[in-house]
Design goal:
There is one protein chain. The protein is an alpha+beta fold and 181 residues long. The protein folds into 2 domains: 4-96, no CATH class; 113-170, no CATH class. Helices cover 26% and strands 14% of the residues. The protein is built from 6 helices and 6 strands. The chain has a two-stranded antiparallel sheet with strand order 1-2. It has a two-stranded antiparallel sheet with strand order 3-4. The model has no long low-confidence stretch (mean pLDDT 76).
Length: 181
């Protein structure tokens, strides 16, 4: 089975490591497009449950177009089919027109996490005051944080996980429970 959408994803480089940008949308369906045509429809039967490849084979004669059927029907979990679900299969020629062409441009990796969530021009005065207050509190404490971030966002230099090949430590920046003696 070939997932064409993986080939179209942009590459990001972070600390010399190449990563794929899975959040990029490469298959954008315009359902009101006059060139869109549906070649077949299926009512999910027992043989289709957890088998999107079967739908692709029955719709196109090949298992290589699972991604088209899933994206076209807005299915994010390929194992979530229920019995008697309605699945529309677009014609292959009209579906291929919805793929965004690969640009081979490497996406810049966002390094400023706060910029993803906070736009200073749009922040309310209450939010600005709250951030200033948190910054003042952090500066007064000896071990105060240099960055004011939500608790679920890693600060600069923190790691999400650490492994030595046999053990995985979650949030190693704040714990020393699993150090070897």
């Amino acid at each position: 089975m070939i997932i064409h959408l993986f080939d179209l994803k942009s590459e990001m480089i972070s600390n010399g490591e190449s990563k794929i940008d899975f959040l990029e949308n490469n298959f954008d369906v315009t359902y009101w497009n006059p060139n869109l045509s549906i070649s077949s429809v299926f009512i999910v039967s027992e043989k289709h449950i957890c088998r999107p490849d079967m739908l692709s084979y029955e719709g196109y004669g090949s298992v290589d177009y699972v991604d088209i059927i899933l994206k076209f029907n807005q299915i994010t979990n390929p194992f979530s089919f229920s019995l008697y679900d309605f699945i529309a299969v677009p014609s292959l020629s009209s579906a291929l027109a919805f793929y965004r062409k690969q640009t081979n441009v490497k996406s810049p990796l966002v390094t400023d996490i706060k910029a993803l969530y906070i736009d200073p021009q749009k922040a309310s005065q209450k939010d600005i005051n709250r951030l200033q207050q948190l910054q003042k509190i952090a500066q007064k404490r000896a071990n105060g944080s240099k960055e004011i971030l939500p608790t679920n966002v890693l600060r600069k230099g923190e790691l999400q996980t650490k492994t030595d090949g046999t053990t995985m430590i979650f949030n190693p920046s704040s714990t020393n429970l699993y150090t070897k003696s």
